[in-house]
């Protein structure tokens, strides 16, 4: 049985506490604590280490992989222009993936112990502690695991020569997403475009969390009617 009066102790590792919140989890996780110092997740130091990732690790690891994938497509017979077109197609596919994953997976409603626990690890921790800079980008080990099914799908649906460059474009879109996401939280944009993106994303965190699911682009929010309204109307959930 889940205790309705359960209170999370922020001074203790959080991951195995949040599941006990039951139906109260959704309200709790969407009441942000604005601090650059993040909480401890696990009592075990090794598990804790794998939850922390500095932002520059993402391009350092994945951009060489993108280059290797594009090179592979050229070696398999694509012309440079065809490979470039496949990369652009992959980036476009990523924008829809970014929106869909954020809206339907990262913001799914959970009430069970393990549902709450997994959701907190996946995305809830970011909404609870939005300024925790070491838990803002996706850990490379988790990304590598998730790449396997997506790579399999791309390989099944496209030609052997096209698949690497197309997947490279998706991966490049992901890198752009993670780096942009970090910048929107911790950077100080001076250009109109980046200022607009920052305002658009912070609206998702602090005004209406049922809108603004895009990070690098507001395209799909506009298409599917989830672009934040100017007056900030929208249920916080």
From TrEMBL:
Regions that span the bilayer: 49-71, 83-101, 136-157, 163-184
One Pfam family named in its UniProt record: FA_hydroxylase
InterPro entries: Fatty_acid_hydroxylase, Scs7
Membrane protein topology class: Multi-pass membrane protein
Cofactor: Zn(2+)
Protein family per UniProt: Belongs to the sterol desaturase family.
Protein name according to UniProt: Fatty acid hydroxylase
One example of a Gene Ontology biological process annotation: fatty acid biosynthetic process
GO MF, one example: iron ion binding
Cellular compartment(s): Endoplasmic reticulum membrane
The Fatty acid hydroxylase domain, residue ranges: 88-226
GO CC annotations on file: endoplasmic reticulum membrane
Keyword annotations from UniProtKB, A to Z: Endoplasmic reticulum, Fatty acid biosynthesis, Fatty acid metabolism, Lipid biosynthesis, Lipid metabolism, Membrane, Metal-binding, Oxidoreductase, Transmembrane, Transmembrane helix, Zinc
């Amino acid at each position: 049985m889940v205790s309705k009066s359960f209170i999370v102790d922020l001074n203790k590792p959080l991951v195995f506490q949040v599941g006990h919140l039951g139906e109260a989890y959704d309200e709790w996780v969407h009441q942000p604590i604005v601090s650059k110092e993040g909480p401890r997740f696990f009592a075990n130091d090794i598990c804790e280490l794998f939850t922390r990732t500095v932002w520059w690790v993402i391009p350092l690891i994945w951009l060489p992989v993108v280059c290797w994938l594009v090179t592979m497509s050229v070696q398999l017979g694509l012309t440079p222009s065809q490979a470039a077109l496949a990369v652009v197609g992959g980036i476009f596919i990523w924008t829809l993936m970014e929106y869909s994953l954020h809206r339907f997976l990262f913001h799914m409603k959970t009430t069970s112990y393990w549902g709450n626990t997994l959701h907190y690890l996946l995305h809830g921790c970011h909404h609870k502690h939005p300024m925790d800079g070491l838990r803002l980008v996706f850990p490379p080990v988790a990304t590598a695991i998730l790449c396997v099914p997506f790579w399999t799908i791309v390989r099944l649906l496209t030609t052997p020569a096209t698949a690497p460059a197309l997947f490279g474009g998706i991966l490049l879109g992901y890198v752009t997403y993670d780096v942009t996401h970090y910048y929107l939280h911790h950077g100080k944009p001076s250009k109109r475009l980046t200022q607009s993106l920052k305002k658009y994303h912070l609206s998702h965190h602090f005004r209406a969390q049922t809108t603004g699911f895009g990070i690098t682009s507001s395209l799909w929010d506009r298409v599917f009617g989830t672009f934040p309204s100017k007056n900030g109307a929208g249920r916080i959930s």
